[in-house]
Amino acid sequence: MEEDQFDESEPSKTQLKKLATELQGLGQQLTAFRTSDLDRLPLSDRLRSAVVEFKRLPNSHGARRRQLQFIGKLMRESDKEKIESAIAKLNSSTIQVNQTEQLILELAEQVIDKGDTAINELVAYHSNLKRQKLRQLYREIHRASGKDRVKFEKKLQTYLQSLI
Prior knowledge:
With about 160 residues, the chain is an all-alpha fold. About 75% of the residues lie in helices and about 0% in strands. Helix 1 (about 15-30) crosses helix 4, helix 5 (about 80-115) packs across helix 6 (about 115-125) and helix 7 runs antiparallel to helix 8. The model has no long low-confidence stretch (mean pLDDT about 85).
């Protein structure tokens, strides 16, 4: 009598399904990124084009679900760890950009609200900022109205962002 022997070097069917589900989930994460961000990830050309195609598809008749399964299949050929670490780096850089933008908006708001007091504090803390330029922008913002005011506020934000 011959008994079926279990080969421990090969993963079980359950482990294979779990891995396939993980890869499909990672592929779904990729679909949330902009096309420009996909260029910064270590993806094969086929995988990248499959993700771009997913974004183009309507969600009728399960087209996106099937495309997601195809992306999961292509993910098997990719290096999961490299892609995960690149996604983590991309997410952390996005968070830093958002925090910087928020800081710039807060600084510009302080200059608009407090005037010379905020300008003097900013110049003391950031020596590369020009007091005269900040005061000029502050005056232009308070003289202008409507669309012109928004334009000068954007100028102030751009100036702060370029030097901080």
